[in-house]
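thoughts on my protein:
***
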Amino acid sequence: LGVPAGNTVAGFIVRMTKQKDPLTVIKAASIIAKKTDKVTVLVIGDGELKNDAMALASKLNLSNTVKFHPFRQDIPAVLANTDIYMLPSLWEGLPIGILEAMAMKKAIVATPADGSKEVIINNDTGLLVPFNDPQKLAEAVLYMHDNKVEMNRMAENAYYKVVNEFSLVKMMNKIENLYRSCSVN
């Protein structure tokens, strides 16, 4: 993946669209790069804003900090090599990417989009940052990088939340109960 050994890896694994706000990620990477060279931002995905994101990263001289990759099928393998999952979306349903990252015990940094704020409890299962705020996104990633114990605590809490509330059996039971409550006698 082009990540230097020992670096903290902040993964942004998405469709590169306005909804996911990739330009805020690149701007945050620029702020991170000014503080440390020990964080790599891994950008994986394709979409209409990928070229803009790549151009901005080039303009900001981020070739050592940001590593771009096209869409991949092996997301579990990619997540296994990340420490932090970033999702600064402007809007969301229930983001499967966050649930997958939580299930793999990854720290989460996200915006309070509807679905994200349902699963991320700030300072417990991850960190929530304001929309369109590269400074706060960078600060959250740097906080995780500088505070590995806290990062790991939040990742563990996220794992237990997804296992306890979003497992296949739990979701099937919730759907079944919903259908039963809606049935007409």
